[in-house]
Amino acid sequence: MTTRALHAVLVERTEAQGGRLLELLSAALDGTGPAIAPVDAGLPGLDELLQTLAPDTVEDTGGSTILRSGHKEPVAEGTAVVIGTSGSTGAAKGVELSAAALTCSARASLARVGARPGERWLCCLPLTHVAGLQVLVRSLLGGTEPVLADRAEPRALAASGCAHVSLVPAQLQRLLRWRGGTDAGEPGPLAGFSSVLLGGAAAPRGLVDAARGAGVPVVTTYGMTETCGGCVYDGLPLDGVRVAIGDDGRIRIGGPVLFTRYRPGGYGGAGSPPQGEFGGMGPPQGRFGGTGPAKSGGGLGGVVPPEETQRWFCTGDLGSIDSAGRLAVRGRADDVINTGGHKVVPGEVAAALQACAGVRDAAVVGQPDPEWGERVVAVVVPADPADPPSLKLLCTHVRERLPRYAAPSRMVLVDAVPVLPNGKHDIARLRRELREQTEPDSVT
Q: 142, 156, 286, 390: least buried by Cβ within 10 Å?
């Protein structure tokens, strides 16, 4: 197998280093430079991740090469980017993404949002995550210079002159609240955008509705590092992407946007977690959604090999597909709560709670119970801390939308639900905090 070198880049600030990363990314995509691995310089497990990625060279935040690996482990020839991630397993690994997959994903994204030549993208997501990096890929394909920002600051967004931006739900929520405090007649910070891609975590239905009601052109996205970021927009797969639901209820993704392999572990060895399964060349059993054959031309990133359009990746998410082919993500398979023999999907319960009056945010976890096996616990951020919703109100609200057994038997009030760097709720941390709690009704 032909291989190429891997160059790790320590990233501290998007604004200061985005230009350098854009230069390296362009060379990685067109094959004139090594593959790159953008890594957060402040990551607590930085040393462990670098050992896992095993790059040939490491570039510090000042642009100097500070390490040449003594045990080189080159990447596959077509690989352009390696994203370090722990996924839901907690174990560091690298996800190898080919130039063809990245550019196929970016082209499909540009087409879906109707991006016109010359329209610029604003990047206020970490460049060490695939969502931030894909903003750079779309800009390269569109022949434009992205605007780089370390944060989604309202006035900076409004003055950016950009047409498109990617956000996580927490950013959108803050921007909407800021919009409500503007002077009468002053447009909100997102008023001038043609599309606002929303991903990284499940977005509360109320948040999406509020944004669209305020005239914000929100496009919800679903995807992961292994699919080069968002591959399903507003429930519908991008061109060339196929979606299926297996007999186990888990979402399968097929098409040219899939990653090449993990570092270490390849397709199913050490380092390849249960949700990282490939289903081989044939289609899985279950309900299908998606589009026609993959579309990919030459140029930057090359051509997707025919065999790459036939693989299927089994995600760790549960979902359903309606008669129109629209995907609904129910939640994580490994988060399912077994209470009294009934299986409860926390994501569905959390979505119902987030739509309840008096709730600003909510997460749901399972807690061991001697009688029922597990009980459903609602972790709630009240809209008004002085007047929080009652457990009875939450139960009634959930039972009107889901089976009775899905209703929470305990409510925990918090100031904020902890989140991971990618904007998703930190469920593992919530479980730890609940185990340590002695107070039955609140957590500070």
A: 390
Paired tokens of 266 = 């390849």
Amino acid letter for position 172: L
CB contact at 8 A, 202 and 351: yes
Helix (H) or strand (E) holding 94: strand 93-98
pLDDT tens string 258-287: 999 998 754 433 333 334 444 443 444 444
Q: Under a CB-based contact definition with an 8 Å cutoff, are residues 136 and 123 in contact? A: yes
Q: Has residue 40 got a pLDDT over 60? A: yes
Whose CA is closest to 50, among 6, 89, 14?
Answer: 6
How many helices (H) and strands (E) would you count in the chain?
10, 27
pTM of the model: 0.80
Domain assignment of residue 29, yes or no: no
- Quote the CA–CA distance of 272 and 265 in Å, as a whole number: 6
Q: pLDDT tens, 366-414? A: 999 888 899 999 999 999 999 999 999 999 999 999 999 999 999 999 9
Q: Are strands 218-224 and 236-237 parallel, antiparallel or unpaired?
A: unpaired
Q: Report whether pLDDT(34) > 50.
A: yes
> In which domain, by residue range, is 398 found?
336-436
Mean pLDDT on 220-235:
96
265 phi, psi to nearest 5 deg: 115, -15
Q: What is the mean pLDDT of the chain?
A: 84
pLDDT in tens, 342-353: 999 998 999 999
What does the alpha-carbon distance between residue 266 and residue 282 come to, in Å, rounded to a whole number? Answer: 19
Total structural domains within the chain: 1
pLDDT at 310: 65
| DSSP-assigned states of every residue in 111-150 | HHHTPPTT--EEE-S-TTSHHHHHHHHHHHHHT-PPEE-S
Residue 395 lies in a domain: yes
Considering only CA atoms, which of 312, 376, 302 is closest in space to residue 340? 376
- Whichever domain contains 406, its CATH number is 3.30.300.30
Whether 384 is in a domain gets the answer: yes
Position 356 in a domain: yes
